[in-house]
């Protein structure tokens, strides 16, 4: 995400050069910034496990805090954040478990990350003036489809 923050800084400079500082800053403050966080980081962790799960959650949350604060300092105020899905239910994870079931360790880690991100965002919204966010719980949304497929257009891959 560090590269994206740098790219945003460049775009911010272009916008303020085009519109002028006041109008550019106003546009940036009123815009919504939407991104998905953590999936690539969690997949890398699952395959490498360079630290404890608890330390992974702390490191990931601390890293995102830095990025969000950097975006805030560049004028971003409204964030739509898509949290981690149940990566333990992706085909690769299911293929590596006995019976093709979802991997609980990976899913527990995804839930722990979501809870940590939620706490981080609550803290930032109370300490940074004008910081607003919506955190999508992709884990719960996806598990609802997996656990309750009847009546929906989705089917479990084992039965499709």
Question: What can you tell me about this protein's structure?
Answer:
It is built from seven helices and three strands. With about 160 residues, it is mostly helical. It has a three-stranded parallel sheet with strand order 1-2-3. Helix 1 crosses helix 2 and helix 4 runs parallel beside helix 6. The protein starts with a helix and ends in a 13-residue tail after the last helix.
Give a brief outline of the structure.
The chain is mainly alpha-helical and 160 residues long. It has helices spanning 2-19, 21-30, 39-48, 53-73, 91-95, 104-127, 138-147, and strands at residues 32-36, 78-82, 132-136.
Keyword list:
mainly alpha, 160 residues
SSE arrangement:
Elements: H1 2-19, H2 21-30, E1 32-36, H3 39-48, H4 53-73, E2 78-82, H5 91-95, H6 104-127, E3 132-136, H7 138-147
Parallel strand pairs: 1-2, 2-3
Helix pairs in contact: 1-2, 4-6
- Low-pLDDT runs: none
Proportion in helices: 55-70%
Q: What is the number of E strands?
A: 3
Count of runs of 4 or more consecutive helical residues: 7
Q: Termini distance?
A: 36 Å
Please indicate the percent range of residues in DSSP E strands (runs of 2 or more): 5-15%
Average pLDDT across residues?
91
């Amino acid at each position: 995400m560090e590269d994206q923050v740098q790219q945003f800084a460049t775009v911010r400079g272009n916008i303020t050069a085009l519109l002028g500082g006041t109008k550019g800053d106003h546009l940036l403050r009123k815009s919504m910034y939407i991104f998905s966080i953590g999936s690539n980081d969690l997949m890398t962790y699952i395959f490498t496990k360079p630290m404890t799960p608890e330390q992974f959650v702390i490191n990931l949350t601390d890293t995102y805090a830095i990025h969000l604060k950097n975006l805030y300092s560049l004028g971003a105020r409204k964030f739509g954040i898509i949290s981690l899905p149940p990566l333990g239910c992706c085909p690769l994870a299911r293929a590596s478990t006995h019976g093709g079931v979802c991997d609980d360790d990976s899913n527990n880690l995804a839930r722990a990350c979501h809870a940590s991100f939620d706490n981080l965002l609550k803290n930032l919204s109370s300490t940074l003036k004008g910081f607003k966010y919506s955190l999508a719980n992709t884990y719960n949304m996806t598990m609802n489809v997996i656990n309750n497929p009847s009546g929906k257009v989705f089917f479990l891959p084992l039965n499709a």
